[in-house]
Amino acid sequence: MRNIYTYCFLVLLCLGFSGCDSGAPQNEEKKESAGTGYLTIKGSDTMVHLVSSWAEEFMKLHKDVEISVTGGGSGTGIAGLINGTTDICASSRRINEKEKELASGKGRVPVELSVALDGIAVIVHPQNPVEALSMEQLQGIFTGKITSWQEVGGANQDLLVFSRESSSGTYVFFQEHVMNRQDYTPRARLLPGTSALVQGVAADTGAIGYVGLGYVKNSADRIKAISILDKDGGTAIAPSDNAVKDGSYPIARALFLYTSGEAQGTAKDFVEFTLSEQGQNIVYESGYVSVMSNENKQ
């Protein structure tokens, strides 16, 4: 009987060691597969081109990764992060307190990463003679207090105001930083995407709108970006990389990626890629401003 007990003990002991041995390769396999799989990124329409460029280059480096990039607005992306329908949210504004509370209620903690800088350019038709406007004049135009170009030194022509929809982070940022949180004029035409806004301004000599700096660089033959007068009304500051970086251009912002908790696996690899030298070169090539210092880029 004692021999039987001894035999059973040895069998169980061997099985125990066998289980421990098999666990190591499984952990190694899991670690190796962290950079594989399917990744979804949703949010800012302003950032779609930039994020798509990042995704394209990242997938070249990681053949076993597939990334889906969609726009719809920063609010849409943040809602997707809160509801668990996207891995990463791209946002041209910071997540607000109400959204943080909603995320917390679902057990999610949004983690913010600043990945690029952007200037919001005010655009008009190339034939428009106006070259610069003050922040006060812009506020008057977009709230509807100013209705004719003649009131700001232009032609005797009605203003046609174009804006993004309220789900857009650019809409929110412009309303907060230019309009002092006042409502947009009810005559404003709200468009779902930046490309549509560019097309609208390019088609009407009385039009005015706003877009990210990257879109100005890509559409310079169709639209004109006007300068913004400083607080004293003396110096007109054009939207440019240097003006955004040194803080002299007044309508500038950071662009963000958000994850639910600290990024893991493929999501972690991707966000680290966006801040690498290659990722920040893509920022520059896409018409935005790198968050890296000039010394670090050289």
Automatic annotation (TrEMBL):
GO MF terms, alphabetically ordered: phosphate ion binding
GO BP terms: phosphate ion transport
CDD domains linked: PBP2_phosphate_like_1 (cd13653)
Signal sequence coordinates: 1-23
Superkingdom of this protein's organism: Bacteria
Alphabetic keyword roster: Phosphate transport, Signal, Transport
UniProt keyword annotation of Signal present: yes
Domain PBP: 32-277
Key word Signal present: yes
Protein family membership: Belongs to the PstS family.
PANTHER family listed in its UniProt record: PERIPLASMIC PHOSPHATE BINDING COMPONENT OF PHOSPHATE ABC TRANSPORTER, PHOSPHATE-BINDING PROTEIN PSTS
Its job: Involved in the system for phosphate transport across the cytoplasmic membrane.
NCBIfam families, per the entry: ptsS_2
Protein name: Phosphate-binding protein
